[in-house]
What we know:
nine-stranded mixed β-sheet; elongated; mainly beta; 14% helix; Maltose phosphorylase, domain 3
Amino acid sequence: MSYSFATNTAYPSWGYMIEQGATTIWELWNGNTANPAMNSGNHVMLIGDLVIWFYENLAGIAPDPAQPGFKHILMRPQPVGDLKWVKATHVSPYGLIASEWQIEKGELEWKITVPANTTATVWLPAAAAAAVSENDKPLSRAAGVKVLRTEAGAVVCEVVAGSYEFELPWKPK
């Protein structure tokens, strides 16, 4: 939903605003036809939820509410639509958290970095652990990776600090 809302160019959407020449988010959806006295043409606070969605959903970088401050990280990317890649970083109190994925030739490659003195729960969008490799090794032999369970089409793992390169088959949803 958010992806189509951000990329759609039909009214109402942010893409529509861009098509109408907007360089910022309008206060009103009909900012191009509304009374100028009733409409701010610079409502940057409305884009805040989209930025959170970029990090937490597209890139899959989210804090764990049970361990605030990114001591433990929840990493669960959610590729959508025709989007073929995402690259995001966040500087946490423990260091750089990174998530970069791309879809090419029926495969999802996801590179992550978990900073020192932290751990992460990682959701890999695959039906089984046997379908996933990390740095060209079967997931079961990947250093720093512990498979926890499989749930709702994802292999859930716990990883320690470090950098990882996961590869798995990808079928568009």
